[in-house]
Amino acid sequence: MSPRAADVMTAEFTGADQGQILDPGATIGIMGGGQLGRMTALAAARLGYRCHIYCPDEDSPGSQVTSAATVAPYDDESALQRFADAVDVVTFEFENIPDSAAEFLATRRPTRPKPFVLHICQQRLREKDFLALNGVPVTRYLPVPSREALDDAVRRLGLPAILKSAQFGYDGKGQVRLTADTNLDEAWARMGGPLGILEAEVDFALEASVIVARSVDGQVALYPPVENRHRHHILDETIAPADLKPETIAAAEAIARKIAGAFELVGLLGVELFITKSGEVLVNELAPRPHNSGHWTMDACVTSQFEQFVRAVCGLPLGSTAHHAPAVMKNLIGDDVKAWLEILGDPDAKLHLYGKAEARPGRKMGHVNKLKR
Ligand SMILES: Nc1ncnc2c1ncn2[C@@H]1O[C@H](COP(=O)(O)OP(=O)(O)OP(=O)(O)O)[C@@H](O)[C@H]1O
Ligand SMILES: [Mg+2]
């Protein structure tokens, strides 16, 4: 630990986190072994840090690029203890780890962001309640604790609406769009979870996101809002920056800043937004980690979202979020990755592959950043 740690000690730190600054050479423990962990580890290495990946799977995209890995379930206390002993700070590239694991780690090592942030972001109802409580605009929603409750929720909220599993959804999984023709028994079964949330469908003009970083000493850095286009419920393209009116940009940035403050965030947060046709900005959901819509920053910004994440988690000053070129990020999903050779021949394209062996349909295999020069 650095002796400078004492300088930044404040009341907002709890458990093992006393606002420590981790000097290069320290080891960052990352919970999760996906591509976000991989790209974080690569950025960390560039600043002289080591990373240790904790993931239930062997040969994960993250562990392929780190010198140390723990392969164990997320609730294995002896593995968590060994992991805590081996690292100087803990962070997450994946928010769906049990609260008990995050809390266990937080009593042993600075854990950034705090387990509380994961707890909120893991569950859509909690997340929406938290946002609403903090005065952040969200679409109208109702809890749906059972099949029986669905009829009443539909009556109160109206249609069309989206029924989502409150927990464990990603890439549109666990979601059903309800219209007047939908059979609610089938919709409830397809949603698949024990607890649902019904959201009024937003008739948006476009989807956007803002990535915000907050440092140990409360400094905030924002990347400009970007536009996100989905295909089959999976992010397909990010257009950066988004073509938005200055007042919409200001509203989006103010929302991201407010949420980061409300969380006392240390780390990175992706804020997914709906921009309505009347220019209203609503929050869809939060991701307390690097976000797919921030991958363009790797090649187009002074500081990538991954370096920014490392800086925040290690207690360093944040970097410039300025971009030197507009960019379009395209995800390579499933067989899209077969175009890798062609992409390498494009002088404005930067290819990023995640080291996944099998190109299953719907699986994110890599992405390409195309700089608009
Ligand atoms: N209330 C809504 N109104 C209109 N469209 C919606 C609504 N909720 C979700 N969608 C659409 O479905 C997409 C996925 O929803 P959401 O972000 O909640 O789910 P997810 O499974 O966590 O997705 P991801 O992992 O891609 O972020 C949104 O990006 C949007 O296109
Ligand atoms: Mg989403």
Protein described:
By secondary structure, this protein is an alpha+beta fold. Helices cover 27% and strands 27% of the residues. The protein has eleven helices and 17 strands. It has helices at residues 35-46, 77-86, 99-106, 115-121, 124-133, 147-157, 184-191, 246-262, 297-300, 305-314, 340-344, and strands at residues 27-31, 50-55, 68-71, 89-92, 141-144, 161-165, 175-178, 196-200, 204-214, 220-222, 226-231, 234-240, 267-276, 281-287, 327-333, 349-353, 364-371. The model is unreliable at 1-11 (pLDDT under 50). Bound molecules: adenosine-5'-triphosphate and magnesium ion (MG). Adenosine-5'-triphosphate binds next to strand 14.
Question: What descriptors fit this protein?
Answer:
single chain; alpha+beta; nine-stranded antiparallel β-sheet; 11 helices; 27% strand; binds magnesium ion
Q: Can I get a quick summary?
A:
With 373 residues, the protein is α+β, with helices and mostly antiparallel strands.
Strand content: 25-35%
Helix content: 25-40%
Return the string of H and E elements: EHEEHEHHHEHEEHEEEEEHEEHHEHEE
Q: Count helical runs.
A: 11
User: Mean of residue pLDDT?
Assistant: 96
Main beta sheet, described?
9 strands, antiparallel
Number of strands: 17
Gross morphology: globular
Distance between the termini: 43 Å
Structural class: alpha+beta
What is the radius of gyration?
Answer: 20 Å
Low-pLDDT segments, ≥5 res: 1-11
Ions, cofactors, ligands: which are bound?
A: adenosine-5'-triphosphate, magnesium ion
